Amino acid sequence: MNIFEFFATIERYHTIQNPTSEEKLDLATRYCGLRDGMRILDVGCGKGWPLRRIAKRFDIQATGLEINRKFAAEARRLAAEENLTERIQIVEGPALEFHPEPESFDVVMCIGASFALGGFEPALDWMSRAAKRGGTIALGEVFAMELPYPPEVSLGSRADTDYPDRSLWTTVETMRAHGMPLRGLVEASTDDWHRYHSLHWQAGLDWALENPGHPDAGRLNDATAMRRNLELDGRYLGWAIFVARNGLD
Predict the structure, then answer these.
(1) What is the DSSP string of 8-65?
(2) Side-chain half-sphere CA neighbours of 10 within 13 A
(3) Which residues contact 62 (CB under 8 A, 6 or more apart)?
């Protein structure tokens, strides 16, 4: 099972593929100031729930980038089911191989997928180039709630995309240093984390029961990962959607 198959399996029950909720995503999109006629780009769109939600409410043109072929196929299928194919285009492949025209999108989103653009700060630079000056950036990103991390979090895993040393405030300040002043923040709660991980645990257990004796069953039901989910996420590690203006002027 490769990394794409792993996530397609472990997130097969997820509608929303981040530690957040429909209500919080709706709040984040309100902070984006969406209106008819806008062009929207979503990097790492997964199954496309946010894009479908937006496209049902506004007459927009949206592009979703997704490297996982199963998620991309599901996003296309669901858009077709909801008669949204004229408003939503799904582009399958690595995000960094997509080259938008500079300042061509009104809103550029990357909800929990900055790794697809090389990490937190490279993602800011890429998104800033794609968004219009005065447009909107919406980034779902992890941050450190409490430092230092426990000893079991090895230094090697404390990367920008895993367990960063950036606090909530440092994250906001870094975005501002990239010309992105904050206009809205939506933070994950403990319940959001538990709901997100509970679907992982259910999917892992069900897959193991469907595939008895399979060597990947242990990977999908790893007790060490569950302990990390319970003891670190929501206590030491936070997650939020940061909505910012693209440009200080």
Answers:
(1) HHHTTT-SS-SS--HHHHHHHHHHTT--TT-EEEEET-TT-HHHHHHHHHS--EEEEE
(2) 24
(3) 39, 40, 41, 42, 51, 54, 55, 87, 88, 89
Q: Which residue has the tokens 């000056």?
A: 133
Single out the residue of 2, 28, 4, 32 nearest to residue 16, CA to CA: 28
Give residue-wise pLDDT tens across range 208-235. 999 999 999 999 999 988 998 999 999 9
Per residue in 125-134, pLDDT tens?
999 999 999 9
- Measured CA to CA, the distance from residue 220 to residue 207 in angstroms comes to 8
The shares of helix, strand and coil residues in the chain, as percent rounded to the nearest 5, are 40, 20, 35
Give the pLDDT band (50/70/90) at residue 136: very high
- Give CA–CA dist 142/121, Å, rounded: 13
Report whether the peptide linkage leading into residue 148 is cis, meaning its omega lies within 30 degrees of zero. Answer: yes
The angle subtended at Cα 71 by Cα 156 and Cα 16, nearest 5°, is: 80
Query: Which letter does DSSP use for residue 1 in this model?
Result: -
CB 31, CB 243: distance < 8 Å: yes
C-alpha distance from residue 85 to each of 39, 52, 142, 151, 156 (Å) = 15, 10, 31, 48, 42
